[in-house]
Amino acid sequence: MFSFTFYMFIICTYAMETSSSFNADYNNSALFRGDTDFTRAIHSMIKAVMFRDTGTVFFTENGMKITVEDYQYVQANVFVQRAMFNDYVLVGSGVDFRIKLPMFCECLNFLGSSTSGNGPRLELSYMRDGAPLRLILEECGVVTDCRIKTLRPEDYVEFDFSADKITCKVIMKPDFLRDAFLDVDSSSEYLELKIDAGKGFTIAATVNHNIEILSPSSIRLAVSNMDMAVQLSERWNLLSFLTPNNQGASVVCYVKSLQVLLDVELYRARNGKGIQLKTGNCIATSESFRVNAVHAYSFERLVNSIGSAFNKLIQDTVQRRICTQVKHLIDGPFNEQLMNMANKVNLILPEMNVQSNDSLWNSKRALIEGMMLDYGLVREPYLHENAIITMHSGEISWQGNGGTPFSPNQIITSLEMNDRMLNVFISEYVINSLLYALWKKGAFEATVTKNTVPHLSQLMSSNCYLGMCLGDVVSSAGVPDVSEDEEFEIFITSPKPPEMLFQDGLAKFISYNKATLHSNKHGHLFHFTGTTVGYMRLQVLDGSSIFGKLNITKVQIANHPNSLYQLGNMELDFVSSITQTVLQQLSDDVCSNGLNLPKQNGLSLGRAQINVVGNSLKVDLDFQFDQHILEEFGIKLPEIRTADLF
């Protein structure tokens, strides 16, 4: 971890000299120097784009540019043309560096009481790479000299705004755009922007949705602000898509601001694995409704001439059909999809393409890949405030075949709410079944040689230059005739599986090991018993993979009674340090490659976080259904679009 400390030096003096007198302080060898009278304008522009603390400053032949970027999603640029500078001297093709923008603005505004229109006169200089940016402000004989430390520049996204790649351009007053955004519903998650040559530039909010808790097992799903254009067949079978043709008439229904209120009950499926849904009351309403007949010949003219009377006649029917279709979708194909969700999932997927050059990890990777999680609900799902709470227990075993010889403990936890949509509590039994399955497959057995962990190669020999190595340890224990070319190996085994305990907000790892020190000259020399203790920190990345860091805090080694030779306390501490380094290396390799959270096609997870609460892991996350999930249900929905015909 690196830490940086930023300093800002401000020196204020009062002098009767003219600005040209301190111009002489400029070093002629500076990479850039220049002065301008537009200090107040530069300050205002930088302040307008200061949504991050740091920005990148560029001095080019065309002028000064400041770029502020937020994780490669949003980028803002301030450009001060060269013509706005009275003096502009640049050495080379360009200069760039990062700077703390709040400090930059504070220096520019140091003479904030300035009464002149453009503010004080500003002189900038940058001597060399890594040097501070120097700002000298002067007004009415008051001189301020600021020097701000600079940082190395970072890569940023370069947007290509070449004229040949622009399909449309809008030039408008910013006040109009601001007013348009103020009119949009602030609860909308996304905005839709449209540019039409005839109609101009329009902004529309997307569909709003909300979930209300009705009881510990029921929710009310509200979908509103939905504009739809639905095409019906000649039988008026709502939501059945039929392309208009000359052989059949069709009707297009334009629905403005459709709102659907649907009650849904959640319960545990019969197999105890997942969740099932049961729909209740449903109400569909719309702000306005209009029907047009298409390719219906005389019927088309009749329908269109009747107008509003015909609209009212069909509106109630259409709204009832909307509810019928939504309920059919949830009670039928959607529940079937939930029932068929895979409750056995691999911990590492082939497409993760994990790379590691370490021989320890490569020898264990196949074991991790063969582990599967078989999971299910412990109790009925529980609804509380804005969260769906599910308590899961599961078993991780080789190929999902089971065989864990112990049973799960009861989950003891507290319902601490946050702003996530889903709170999942996972029993510690899941982790301990994984440790048992790995132990059964020999994952915690290892042979340590001088090539296993490269930076320990000197310690694993009898001839070293580090003050102490295994050759010294063996000699001090009374082993005779230790040669300079003697090589050693450590065989590590586990007499019983390690365990993970969740307590006091921490995940405590305990491992029980035996070790044998072997020499290629003398054979087995020492036998040890040991206990390893560590604490694990977990985090979720990309919404679907758990990564962790196991910090091994103690490795305690003791002589085994059957050992041919016995080590003293100092030598035992030395062997313990080697063992701790090897185990830390192995755990880092395994943890850094991550394990997958159970997931299903059609669901996207986000904003996940993981903590230890009570004796369980608590995973909090948001979820949403992917747009293509309805197609997987085999339902042919009509084209739904924002209706702009009202």
Automatic annotation (TrEMBL):
InterPro entries: Bactericidal_perm-incr_a/b_dom (IPR017943), BPI/LBP/Plunc (IPR032942), Cell_cycle_checkpoint_Rad1 (IPR003011), Lipid-bd_serum_glycop_C (IPR001124), Rad1_Rec1_Rad17 (IPR003021). SUPFAM superfamilies: Bactericidal permeability-increasing protein, BPI (SSF55394). GO terms for molecular function: lipid binding. GO terms for cellular component: extracellular space; nucleus. One of its GO terms (biological process) is DNA damage checkpoint signaling. Keywords: Signal. Residues 1-15 form the signal peptide. Residues 416-621 form the Lipid-binding serum glycoprotein C-terminal domain. The keyword Nucleotide-binding does not apply. The keyword Signal applies. Gene3D superfamilies: 3.70.10.10, Bactericidal permeability-increasing protein, domain 2. This is Cell cycle checkpoint protein RAD1. It comes from Trichinella zimbabwensis. The lineage of its organism: Eukaryota, Metazoa, Ecdysozoa, Nematoda, Enoplea.
